[in-house]
Amino acid sequence: MASSPLPHSSLSSPLPKFKPSQHRTLKTTLTSTIKCTSTNHSPTTTPPAPAPQRRAVEDNIRDEARRRIPAAENFSSRYVPFVADPGKTPPSDESYSLDEIVYRSRAGGLLDVQHDMEALRRFDGEYWRSLFDSRVGKTTWPYGSGVWSKKEWVLPEIDDDDIVSAFEGNSNLFWAERFGKHLVGMNDLWVKHCGISHTGSFKDLGMTVLVSQVNRLRKMNRPVVGVGCASTGDTSAALSAYCAAAGIPSIVFLPANRISIAQLVQPIANGAFVLSIDTDFDGCMKLIREVTSELPIYLANSLNSLRIEGQKTAAIEILQQFDWQVPDWVIVPGGNLGNIYAFYKGFKMCEELGLVDRIPRLVCAQAANANPLYLYYKSGYSDFKPVKASDTFASAIQIGDPVSIDRAVYALKNSNGIVEEASEEELMDAMAMADSTGMFICPHTGVALSALMKLRNGGVIGPTDRTVVVSTAHGLKFTQAKIDYHSKGIGDMACRFANPPVQVRADFGAIMDVLRNYLDKGAKV
Ligand SMILES: Cc1ncc(COP(=O)(O)O)c(C=O)c1O
Ligand SMILES: N[C@@H](CCOP(=O)(O)O)C(=O)O
Fold first, then answer.
1. Hey, is 347 helix, strand or coil?
2. Residue 249, in any domain of the structure
3. 3-state secondary structure (DSSP) of residue 366
4. Same structural domain, 243 and 327
5. Model confidence over 171-228: pLDDT tens digits?
6. What is the C-alpha separation between 162 and 455, in angstroms, rounded?
7. 301 lines ligand 2 (CB under 6 A)
8. If 45 and its partner were Cys, which of 32, 260, 293, 414 is the partner (CB 3.0–4.6 Å)?
9. Of the candidates 388, 396, 395, 370, which has an alpha carbon nearest to the alpha carbon of residue 484?
C-alpha cells in the first residue's frame, strides 16, 4: 500500500528535553583522545549507543539524531554589520539574532554571520581537525553532509531536527594530472568539483543552511510564506530542490532566455513558482529585493549571509582533503561575488582556530563580458562602477552589479589576491582543453582555468605551486555551449579544439577509409 506523504507539521514534533547533567560533548567518542585547551572545560567520554543494523520501519536517521544527547557547548552566532575596512569603520554594537528576518544593516550595508570565536577557541586546532575528519563518509544525521559535518562553525544553534540536507558537500578534489602536466606544466594542480553535487552546483552548500533556517523560522511561526531568489540558474535550482524537500514554497525570478535549458527545467521540475522576466540578472535581483521587502518571502540570494556560512565549508573541505596542508592558490570564478568571500571566510576561520597556520592566495576569475570586479581591481580599487554585463557562455556569471562587491574586495585584499578575466574564446578553449583531458566542466570553470593559464604564462603561479581551481557547476548543465563549440557554430571563434562527429555511410569500406585517415594523422593506439 502506498503511504501518504509526510505532512510538514509532523516534522515539528517536540524534542525530548534533557537535563543539563545529561548533556554530553560534541563527539563523545573523540574527546578522550583530543586535547581541550580550556582548563575549566572537561569533555566526557560516554560513547553514543550503537545504531541497530536494521531500523524498525517507523525509525530513521533523523529519529536517531533526536535520541542523541545534545552537546553542552554554548556555541552561538549572530548577524553583525559587515565591516569592509576595519581601520576606518568604528566598531558598532548593532547585531541581530539569526532568528530575525534581516538582510541589511541599519546603514544599508551587508551583514555577516559572526561566530562566538572565544567559545570555539576553547578547543584547539587538533580537536577540530579530528572532529571534522571523524564525520566524513558517514550516514549520521546531519553530519553525513559536508556542510553539517562542520555544524558548530556554520549554524551551531539550529536543532538537528530542523535541518534540510541532501548530504551535500564532500565533493571530489580531482588531481588534474594531464591538464596540469601537458597544458600548464604543473604537477600539483587540483580541481575542486563543487558542481558534482545534488543540484549540480556549489549553491547546494549555502542553500541547505538557508532553507534549514527557514524551516526553523516557520516552526517558530515567523512570517515566512515562501523563499525567493533571482537567479542565473544555479541558485534557483538549489533553492527549489531544498524547498521541495522541506515542503516550503519557492519563488524564482529568472532572466528570460538567458539561462540554459537544463537550469530552467530544474526549478520547474521541483515545483517552484517560476517567473521568466524580460530583463537581465541584475534586473531580477533588483526586483526580488523590492518584492521581499514588501511580502513575507524570505530572500535566498547570497546577499543573505546565511548562504556564505554553508559555502565556506568548501574551503575547509579543501584543507581537510589535503590532510590540513594549505594550497598556495585557490582560483574561484566570480559573478555576484558571494563565493570568493565564502572561501576566504572558511580558510580564515581555519587559521584563526589553529587548524592551519596560513591561508592560500585567492584569485577571482571573471568573464571579460561581465567584469566589474576586474575593472575595479585594475583601477587599484579606486573606482567601482557596475557594468552592463553582455552575453557570455559563462551565463551564470553574467552579472554587472554584484551584491557582494565589498565582501569580494575584503577577501582579495586580505589574501594577497588577484583578479583575472577571460574572453569568450579563452574560456571556451579552456573548457574544451579540460574536457579533452577527461573532465566535463562548465564554462565558468573554463573562466577559472583561463585565469590559471594566464597566471602560469606570466610566471605568477609557479610550476610546483599547489593550486586548486574551483569548479562551480556540472558540465551537463551547459551542453548547448559545448555543442556550439564542437560544431564550430560560434561566429568569430576559431573553436581550435572542436571535435565534431564525422558523418559516415553505413558501409565497411567507407568506415575503414575514415579510420585509416584518422590513424594516419597520429591517433595513439
Ligand atoms: C556556476 C557558477 N559559477 C560561479 C558563480 C559565481 O558565484 P558568485 O556569484 O558567488 O560569485 C555562479 C553564480 O553566481 C555560478 O552559478
Ligand atoms: N549564479 C547565481 C547568481 C546569483 O547568485 P547568488 O549566489 O547571489 O544567489 C545563480 O545561479 O543564480
1. helix
2. yes
3. strand
4. no
5. 999 999 999 999 999 999 999 999 999 999 999 999 999 999 999 999 999 999 999 9
6. 44
7. yes
8. 32
9. 395
Q: What distance in Å separates the CA atoms of residue 62 and residue 140, rounded to the nearest whole number?
A: 9
- Which residue is closest in CA terms to ligand 2's atom 12? 231
- Say if 149 falls within a structural domain: no
User: What does DSSP say about strands 226-230 and 250-255: parallel, antiparallel, or unpaired?
Assistant: parallel
Span from the CA of 235 to the centroid of ligand 1 (angstroms): 9
Residues 233 and 292 in one domain: yes
User: Could you tell me if 422 and 280 lie in one domain?
Assistant: no
Q: 362 has which bridge partners? A: 330
Q: Do 279 and 405 lie in a common domain?
A: no
Q: Is the CB of 212 under 6 A from ligand 2?
A: no
Q: How many residues does the chain have?
A: 525
CA distance 127 to 116: 17
- At 9, the pLDDT band (50, 70, 90 cuts) reads very low
Backbone angles phi, psi at 498, to 5 degrees: -65, 145
Question: How many structural domains compose the chain?
Answer: 2
**Strand 173-175 with 418-422, pairing:** unpaired
Cβ burial of 97 (10 Å; 0-12, 13-18, 19+) is exposed
Dihedral in degrees, nearest 10, Cα atoms 274, 279, 280, 281 = -40
Query: Within a 10 A sphere around the Cβ of 18, how many other Cβ atoms?
Result: 12
407-456 pLDDT per residue, tens: 999 999 999 999 999 999 999 999 999 999 999 999 999 999 999 999 99
Residue in 201, 264, 305, 312 to alter for ligand 1 test, most ligand atoms within 8 A of Cβ: 201
Same domain, yes or no, for 450 and 480? Answer: yes
Q: How far is the CA of 204 from the centre of ligand 2 (A)?
A: 11
In DSSP terms, 474 is beta-bridged to 441
The verdict on 347 and 293 lying in the same domain is: no
Of 194, 195, 226, whose CA–CA distance to 210 is shortest?
226
Indicate which CATH number applies to the domain containing 475. 3.40.50.1100
Give domain status of residue 341, yes or no.
yes
- 3-class DSSP assignment, residue 173: strand
Q: In 3D, which of 466, 438, 442, 196 has the Cα closest to residue 331? A: 466
Nearest-CA neighbor of 447 among 515, 393, 382, 380?
393
In a domain, 260, yes or no: yes
Domain interval for residue 269? 203-307
Question: In this structure, which amino acid lies at residue 77?
Answer: S
Residues 193 and 220 in one domain: no
